[in-house]
Amino acid sequence: MPLWQPPPPPPAVTYTTNVLPILQNNCVRGGCHNGNGTLTPYTGIMSAKSGATNTPYVVKANLAGSYLIQKIDPTKFPGAVGNDMAQQGGLSAAQVQTIENWVEQGAAQ
Questions:
Q1: CA distance 102 to 22
Q2: What's the maximum distance between 2 C-alpha atoms anywhere in the chain?
Q3: How far apart are CA 52 and CA 109, in angstroms?
Q4: Which residues contact 56 (CB under 8 A, 6 or more apart)?
Q5: CB neighbours of 81 closer than 8 A, spacing ≥ 6?
Q6: CB neighbours (10 Å) of residue 4?
Q7: What ranges do the domains of the chain cover?
Q8: Cα dihedral value 71, 77, 81, 86, nearest 10
Q9: d(CA 94, CA 26)
Q10: Which of 21, 57, 62, 106 is the most buried (most CB within 10 A)?
Q11: How far from chain centre, in Å, is Cα 36?
Q12: What pLDDT, on the 0 to 100 scale, is given for residue 71?
């Protein structure tokens, strides 16, 4: 038996089960993105683009190409245009990791 084994993959993450509650509690409910259709529903977030850079909010399996990730994890992607999100206290490290895992895993609904 080998001494080292790779860590297990993160659990499967979906928009409806894992990501939507984070967005609703931190982005939509706070009023910043309430009702504008960019974060909810799933079709909105998958088709939305930044007004400033025309970068898609979510590019499946591409953290660097996803505007949402650039905004919620500015330490990983410094220099993103506009304000860091979420402005009202920010997301926890676990919430950011959940959203990043979702994108990396292909942004399933």
A1: 12
A2: 54
A3: 26
A4: 48, 49, 50, 65, 66, 67
A5: 50, 52, 53
A6: 4
A7: 15-104
A8: 20
A9: 13
A10: 57
A11: 17
A12: 86
Q: What band does 105 get if pLDDT is binned at 50, 70 and 90?
A: very high
- CA neighbor of 15 nearest in space, from 44, 43, 42: 42
Task: Name the DSSP class of 31.
Answer: S
State the DSSP code for 54. Answer: -
Q: What would the pLDDT profile of 55-103 be if each residue is shown by its tens digit?
A: 999 999 999 999 999 888 877 777 666 666 766 667 899 999 999 999 9
Beta bridge partners of 56: 49
State the pLDDT at residue 52. Answer: 83
Dihedrals phi, psi of 107, to nearest 5 degrees? 55, 50
**Would you call 56 helix, strand, or coil by DSSP?**
strand
Instruction: Give the model confidence (pLDDT) of 9-44 as tens digits.
Output: 888 999 999 999 999 888 876 567 666 667 889 999
Beta strand extents in the chain (DSSP E only): none
- SS3 for 49? strand
